Amino acid sequence: MVTDDEWARIRQGLRFGQVFEGTVVKVPRPGAVGIFVDIGLSVGGFVDVLLLPEQGENWPAEGTVSAFEIWWADSRQQIRLKPSDSRYLRHDFAEFVERFRPGWPLDVGHPVRDLNPRS
Known about the structure:
By secondary structure, this protein is of the alpha+beta class. The chain contains three helices and five strands, in the order αβββββαα.
């Protein structure tokens, strides 16, 4: 766990779509929750179940090293990731983005926004 100030400092250097090599460190309930990924920062990475293949057996196993992109980072001290490798990404990702996050292509490369700036 990092301080709020440290988290703000880390977030300042993050960009949507930024790629990290990460190691899957925990798959608590394949097919149900998501996966935890160590990307070498003092905060953890997480891939939500909604971005992973429908079948849990197609998820990366603990110990898998792969590329992950920053999908989101908000006030929670965790970096939300999406797999870069299409084997670990939901098969209909393009349609998913179009429906639920149509601005994603325009966000890529831009700094992670602070939706709840501190006064």
